[in-house]
Design brief:
The protein is α+β, with helices and mostly antiparallel strands and 96 residues long. It has two helices and six strands. The chain has a single domain, classed as Conserved Hypothetical Protein Mth637, Chain: A, CATH 3.30.1200.
Length: 96
Amino acid sequence: MSFLREVGKDLVLTIKVKPKSRQNQIIGLRGDLLLISVTAAPEKGKANKAVIDLLARELQLPKRAFEILLGEANSEKVMRISGISQDKMKQLLALE
């Protein structure tokens, strides 16, 4: 899966965010991206915060385990996630 790769002890995840959606949810894979919808607007970091909140809850990780590496002001983002294996993440997100 090219949307997710291991870099050292961390995972790097490529996502596409749909802000101002009806609900916060992980929709699934769309090509090389994990599609995530959030109700927050893409202003002042609100959508980014909502994405981290959602992923932290779904992956059972603290929010500090997430870092946006690229795309802070873009709908496509690259995130670093620490504290979880690739297999565990796929299992929790039901991506297998």
